[in-house]
């Protein structure tokens, strides 16, 4: 007897033969996978393959043309109050005159034009979220006075303030310097480890995230696939995925990273970091306890 695949209680995001069409064009189809609760996954794929569209579909903001997407046990969109979302263009879209605290409070009040006064409890929750991302004492800074890395932390604190079970981030490492990337990965590692938060992010650069990733959704040939990390870290798969020859290198410490093949270094780089930077990061990440082993 055939038993149709059912959702397990420890699944967070479940795609069943899902497809999306935008502007009359099929973006991807046959999405059929389940991402477990407590996982840290990257959505990877070349430009325009539909990574942001996938998050939009999970939030119920883009309709499916086929199949279903279930998030936290309910149809996409129904559980959005338990999802923290950090969009790619957060810094560009938000009013730069807002203070960091006002921005974070938006995660609770929804709109800065709302007439509801902010309660003491809400301020305390905002303070706690800001402390978690290392913005203590910066409450009154205006976004216009903050660096890109600090604004990114404000965006994450805003997403965290409603205590989500699932945190979704669209290219959180883009435009951050190495130290800011490292700090952000550390925050994500703590959220996952200390609160069991499921995390999903769109990412072009896998290397900084490798210490915390448990799996990846990769958009390839018009289909989204999900695999555990050890299966994703395959040179042939990644070469196909990135459209340029890459190799997976293992350091003497056992850390892995993805790099262009030596004979392809003239191609568009897969990663903007040098191998030395990545190795140093991984070493440091392991010392900081950001790895998955513990
Ligand atoms: N509102 C829209 N209406 C119609 N088509 C759209 C819309 N938004 C995006 N698209 C198209 O959907 C496709 C996937 O876009 P999406 O932004 O999801 O890709 P992506 O993988 O996130 O890209 P990138 O890596 O460049 O951020 C693209 O071809 C894009 O042109």
UniProtKB/TrEMBL annotation:
InterPro entries: AAA+_ATPase (IPR003593), ABC_transporter-like_ATP-bd (IPR003439), ABC_transporter-like_CS (IPR017871), Metal_Ion_Import_ABC (IPR050153), P-loop_NTPase (IPR027417). Coiled coil: none annotated. It comes from the Bacteria. It holds the Pfam family ABC_tran. Residues 13-246 form the ABC transporter domain. One of its GO terms (molecular function) is ATP hydrolysis activity. PROSITE patterns: ABC_TRANSPORTER_1 (PS00211), ABC_TRANSPORTER_2 (PS50893). Keywords: ATP-binding, Nucleotide-binding, Transport. PANTHER family: METAL TRANSPORT SYSTEM ATP-BINDING PROTEIN TM_0124-RELATED (PTHR42734:SF17). This is ABC transporter ATP-binding protein. It comes from Bifidobacterium pullorum subsp. saeculare.
């Amino acid at each position: 007897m055939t038993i149709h695949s059912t959702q397990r209680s420890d699944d967070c995001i479940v795609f069943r033969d899902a497809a999306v069409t935008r502007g009359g064009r099929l973006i991807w189809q046959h999405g059929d996978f389940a991402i477990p609760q407590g996982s840290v996954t990257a959505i990877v794929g070349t430009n325009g393959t539909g990574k942001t569209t996938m998050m939009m579909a999970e939030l119920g903001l883009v309709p499916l043309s086929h199949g279903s997407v279930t998030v936290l046990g309910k149809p996409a969109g129904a559980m959005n109050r338990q999802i923290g979302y950090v969009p790619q263009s957060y810094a560009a879209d938000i009013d730069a005159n807002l203070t960091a605290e006002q921005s974070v409070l938006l995660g609770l009040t929804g709109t800065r034009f709302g007439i509801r006064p902010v309660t003491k409890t809400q301020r305390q929750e905002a303070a706690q979220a800001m402390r978690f991302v290392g913005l203590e004492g910066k409450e009154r800074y205006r976004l216009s006075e903050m660096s890109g890395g600090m604004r990114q932390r404000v965006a994450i604190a805003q997403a965290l303030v409603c205590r989500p079970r699932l945190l979704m981030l669209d290219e959180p490492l883009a435009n951050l310097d190495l130290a800011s990337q490292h700090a952000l990965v550390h925050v994500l590692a703590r959220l996952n480890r200390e609160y069991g938060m499921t995390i999903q992010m769109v990412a072009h650069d896998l290397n900084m995230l490798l210490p915390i990733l448990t799996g990846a959704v990769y958009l390839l040939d018009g289909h989204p696939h999900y695999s555990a990390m050890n299966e994703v870290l395959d040179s042939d798969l990644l070469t196909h995925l990135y459209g340029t020859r890459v190799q997976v290198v293992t350091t003497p410490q056992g850390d892995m990273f993805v790099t262009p093949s030596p004979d392809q270094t003239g191609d568009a780089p897969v990663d903007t970091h040098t191998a030395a930077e990545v190795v140093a990061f991984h070493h440091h990440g392991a010392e900081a306890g950001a790895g998955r082993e513990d």
